[in-house]
Amino acid sequence: MADEIQIEEILEYIWILEENSDKTKSSLVSNKFGSDIADTYLKVMAEQKLINLHNSVIDFTEPGRERAKLIIRRHRIAERLLNDVLEMRGDEFERGACQFEHFVNEEIIASICTLLGHPAVCPHGNKIPQGQCCLSAKKNLDPIISPLSEIKAGKMVKVVYISTKSHASLDRLTGIGVIPGLELTIHQKFPSMILQYGETQLALDNDIAKNVFVRIIQN
Amino acid sequence: MHETKNKESDSKNIDYRIALVGNPNVGKSVLFGLFTGKYVTVSNYPGTTVEVTKGMYAGSNDTIEVVDTPGANSLISHSEDERVARDILLRDEEKKVLQILDSKNIHRGLLITTQLAEMGLPISIGLNMWDETLDRGMSIDTDKLQETLGVTLTKTIATQKYGIGALRNSINSVKVPKIRIDYGKTIEDGITQLETLLPDKTSVKKRALAIMLLSFDEDLEETLEVDEEALVKIHAIRDGVQKEYGHPLSYVITKKRSDYVNDLLKGIVSYREHEATAGAISRNLFFFFFMPLFTFFVGYKVIDLLLFMFAGPLDTNGLAALILRLAGGAVSVGYYSFHLFSREYRSKRKITNILGTLTMHPALAWPMLIVVLWCIYKIVGQFGAGDCVDFVESKIFGSSLEMSGGFDFKAFIPFTKIEYVFTHVNFQGINYYLGLLCQKFISSDNFFFQLFLGEEAGLMQVGVTYSIAIILPIVGFFFISFGLMEDSGYLPRLAVMLNRFFKIIGLNGKAVLPMVLGLGCDTMATMTTRILDTKKERVISTLLLALAVPCSAQLGVIAGILGSVSGAHLAIYFFVIFSQMLLVGYLSSKIIKGSGSDFLMEMPPFRRPKLANILMKTYYRTKWFLKEAVPLFVLGTFILFIITKLGVLTYIQRAAEPVVKHFLGLPVETTQGFILGFLRRDYAVVSIFKALEKNAGSMVIDPNQLIVSLVVVTLFVPCLANFFVMIKERGAKIAFLMLAFILPFSFLIGGILRYILQILPI
User: N or C: which terminus of chain B has fewer CB atoms within 10 Å of its end residue's CB?
Assistant: First the structure.
């Protein structure tokens, strides 16, 4: 079991390195986990055909990539859950998410993912790999967290997170005060969406509203 | 040369500068006007000030300069206006900053304060719109806030000149706010590293510059003039810090600031139970008298316009039509009243707030929009462009060779035929007297007489008369209506309503300002395309203004002529122009490179417009217009004069014959009208109408010919003044490219329309 967790941690790390478009060198893995552990486990992983090692450069094999993807997905979905719904912060949050990923099976993750409205990014703004549930996106269950654009007019919502990466003008939202934690009312949706918060009425495009994720707090 | 000279003389005697800084639409320009006595355009539309305006502080003997900056929500530059505002603050000169904030949106205002504090600039804060804050039941503990910030706070209501004296005094005691935000270790380390790389002499604190650099402010790198080597290091540090965060650094930084301001405001801002309500009398008047009356009118008018469009003016006088109209009015009253009484009556909100909501209601706002447009047409198109222009053009200016016949000075009661003539004024027109005077010296065939007073292209008879007789009434009335829309807050609501439409043509709701202004004057509208965020949007809107937005001068005449034929024809005309706008807009949004921007606009509250401000604004706009346009029209007339004298016109007519006659199916004489279109768009319409009339002889003009020619002349080249502004704003290359597209395109559409109309049974 301990082996499995260690392997998962390393797979996860390699995924993150790849995501940052760095060359995945075994030396980087050694820096993070210590050279003893890195050497042993990389060898084991190569034997299990999870990775290919060429001259200390690491590449995922197909099964390896699939497995890493699932781990990353579990981790980031867990982050969303702890951050948005349970509102955990700081250490508690980090530790929680790390433990979570190793013990939860795919079915439970799919349920959580649906509950959260198939989030696209983690609280840090990194992409969450899509699972089967996201692709079919069945809406038999009303998600707790959904994009602003999906909410009906007249509801009061709280901004949970803003997916900043996918859109340039989201930056401007922060300047006028739309940030996580803000409570706002959806004044109307047609002809354009208008939000009301404090003494401000703000008109915005659906394209922007799609990237603001909120939780309904009052009908 | 000129500029450097100015700078020298400036620095000699200016003691210091006062910079007005703040979010958009908080009233900086009003205060600027109060301080300097100089007028700048003030409106209830965010982003009215695009350029920096400077003026001398009244009573300072030209030793204190006041600078009005465009509104900015952040001093990290995202858009042109934010960059302009920021660069003024970065300039190395003795300055005091007066930050104006909208007290009801104090949180957002203080976000700017944090950035000013980081820059280390001494400031004083004006809490403007204090009345609206009180109305909303909001209270701000200013003493406590003043103590926390260590900066003088002054409550003001700029439009009522309340608190202005205190604000003036506070300029003498500016201080740097006591604000220090901890951005967390990673960012703070980055800031420290960047600070060492920055040049030693900077006008503001290095910490502020470092934070801007971390926020990916690439414009700043240009402004700072750091060398290549340092730039590479700066990028490395920035990217290093960014890696630690999933969100863009600018977002992380703003979030920290926002949290800081939230903490700061705890215990300072509180809300009372009830907000101000409207008085009982005005409320009841509003609910039981004004709204039923107005909504009845809305319903009545909408049906009226529909009848006009589908049945033509002749069939709409019967009893059935009257019943239909009354029914429309009744339905409208019922519908609106149901909404108002079920939703608003018990909420006891202020009337302006109710109107603010109603004017962007998903369903109820549309009929109101139609009526608003109709009212504008009545005022501008009929009264301004019709009656006033007729009077000024034929009676005041008149003709150089014929007497105008004078006019009656009379009183009359509207909607009746009762009138009382006081006296007959025997004034024969300025041009006639000038002509009379000239004919004492030279004959009317003389070259110079023709140059100045010729019927065809005399500088005085055509150029000056046109620009003053046509423009003054039309543009004046249009600017009054436009001012009303701006200051009441209707224009931003129009942006909300039309956003989806503008999205199709590659723009967004914000483009409502230049587009609607274009219905008044395309030349001025082209200048205001600056308020759009990206270059692509500016190019598209400039093109569409030149192509498909008829100015009020033209629209008035066209609506008059086509309306007298039949409503259906007017409808076809609008449909064709509108569809071309959609088509060209859609295509150009696909073809032109670059990106559009998203619609994100704060809705200013609905306010009762101040008449004085509207008149003032109209005066300045009209004055600007006359100053810019009159020389251009005179120049245009001069060109036309040369063309006529050289006989070039006949050549052009002959060259255009195949297109005009065979493709468009119009008489050759109309060519002259098209050429005139370059000079004065409305005159082109009249000229074409006259040519068609002559051609038809005793017969009625073929309405299809009329539509085709009017569509072509609308789409056809913009007027000369507009073209010059296009060159100035977009550059000669783009302007000529647009011209090269518009010319053949307008004829193509005209030709296609001709064949379609031949098939259609109208």
Answer: N
